Amino acid sequence: MTDPSVVPNIIDLLPALRAYARSLCRNATDADDLVQQTLTKALANVDKFTPGTRLRAWLFTIMRNSFYTNTVQRARETTGVEDCVSDLQQTPATQEWSVRGRELHEAISRLPTHYREMLILVIVLGASYEEAAALCDCAVGTVKSRVNRARRLVIEDLGADAF
Q1: Is the predicted pLDDT of residue 95 greater than 90, yes or no?
Q2: Closest residue by Cα to residue 59 from 43, 79, 76
Q3: For a designed S-S bond to 21, which of 34, 39, 104, 111 qualifies (C-beta 3.0 to 4.6 A apart)?
Q4: Band of the pLDDT at 154, cuts 50, 70, 90?
């Protein structure tokens, strides 16, 4: 059975373990992970520690072996440049679309009411010319004319560079 003083001694060695892990990893987050992995392995195998030997050396050996094992695993699991998806943009940027949408909304809101109404009915809501004519109680030709003029006014308002 193991000496019960081993666990408190492990806790006393935490600063030294962190320092050694940082010298191996050169990254604070990876070093903390390595310390945790070392402590997990040490506590799971504390019965294999030989009392009277140096606990610090035993823990450092576990840490060094874990570090080298992790390094070999990372090298083996590294994806090739052509297969690497970390450089691919997962979500396309929406800022330009948001700005363009806002500009379009503002241009539509500046239209005279009778043009805006027809544009929204036919283009935005997808109503047919006949449905829009019935809703607004006017001729189909009037609807077509107002939609055409509304499109032209919006294009002029947004400028030629918008398209």
Answers
A1: no
A2: 43
A3: 34
A4: very high
